[in-house]
Amino acid sequence: MRAISAYLSTKKLTFLLTALFGLSILISTAAVGRGGGEPLLLYAQQDKKHSSPGRQPPPSQYRSPPEPALEYKYFHEAGDNLVLAHYDARFYQGHIPHNKHRTTLTHLIRSYLTTFSSHGLPTWLAHGTLLGWWWSGRILPWDGDVDAQVSGATLGWLVARGWNQSRFVYHEEEYEYFDEYEYYDEDVVREGEGRRRRRVRQREYFLDVNAFATQTRRSGGENVIDARWIDVETGVFVDITALLERDPDGRPGVWSCKNFHEYPTGQLFPLRETEFEGVPALVPWGYHSMLIGEYGVSSLAFTEWAGHRWEPELGVWLKTNKTEGGER
Fold this sequence. Notes:
By secondary structure, the chain is α+β, with helices and mostly antiparallel strands. The protein contains 7 helices and 14 strands. It has a domain at 98-319: Beta Polymerase, domain 2, CATH 3.30.460. The chain has helices at 2-33, 37-51, 98-118, 127-136, 152-160, 265-268, 287-295; strands at 124-125, 146-151, 166-178, 188-191, 194-209, 227-231, 237-245, 254-256, 262-264, 272-276, 279-283, 304-305, 308-311, 316-319. The chain is globular and about 55 Å long.
C-alpha cells in the first residue's frame, strides 16, 4: 500500500513540474511576442549584472536555435554598386545627400556604441572604422558604412535575451544652421557671423541578427555578416561580425569570422577603452599590427586618399579635387 501511495505521489509531482514548465514556456513566448525594444531592453538591463560578458576573452562558443535547413542570403542591400550596397533594402528611401550622409553615419555609430556600452556588452571597432579611429577618432570621410565586431558569446546573449529584431530609440543633440532672418527661438545661439538652432532629435534603430549566424562555415559568402544595426529612416547600417574559436582543438586561441579574418587572442584582448565620434568605444589590444596586417604599412602613412588630404595640424581629412583611391 505504501509503495502504491509513493508511486502516486511521484506521478503527481511529475505532472505538476511538467505543467509548471509548460506554463513558463507560454509566459516567455507571450512576453517575446509583444515585440518592441522597450520591454526587451528592460529585461536585459535587469539581467546584465549577471549575464553580460566582460571585456576579457569571453567563451568562444554559444548556444542558439538550430539553423534553417536551406541557406539563403539573409541581408539584402538596395543595389549592387558601391553606393547602394551600403543601404538595407527594407529601409531604403533614397540616396542620402553627401552633406547629410556623414551626420547620419555619426549618429548611427554613436547610438550603437552607447546602447551596447550601457548594457555592458563589449563590441569593438573593426576594419575601415578602426582605421578611421587610428587617424582621427572619427569615421573616414569616404567610408559608406561602419564595421564592428563582437564575440560569439555576446551574439548569443543578444538572441537569448530577446534583443533580435528589436527597435531602439536614441536621442541625439544636433545643431541646425539657418539664415539670420529665419524664425528662431530661445535655443538659438550665435556662432561667429551665423546662427544655429539646437534641437534634440529622436532616431530609431533596428537590431537584426542573421538567421544563419550559427553557421560556422563561410559557404557561398552570402551570410558573412552576422548582424546589423540599421537606421530605420535611411537604411544605413553597422555591419556586425562575430568572432569565435572555430577550431579550439586544432588551432586554440585563434579567433575568426566567416570572412577569413583571423586574430590571436593576444591581439584582440584585453580591449582598450577609448573614444570614437565623441562617445566611449573599445578597440582591440593589438590594433596597430591588426591594421598593418589588413591594409599594409602604407595605410598608416599615406596622406592623400579618395579625394582627401590629411591635415595634421587640424587632425582631419580635407576634401581635395582629386578622386583617386576608394573605400577601406
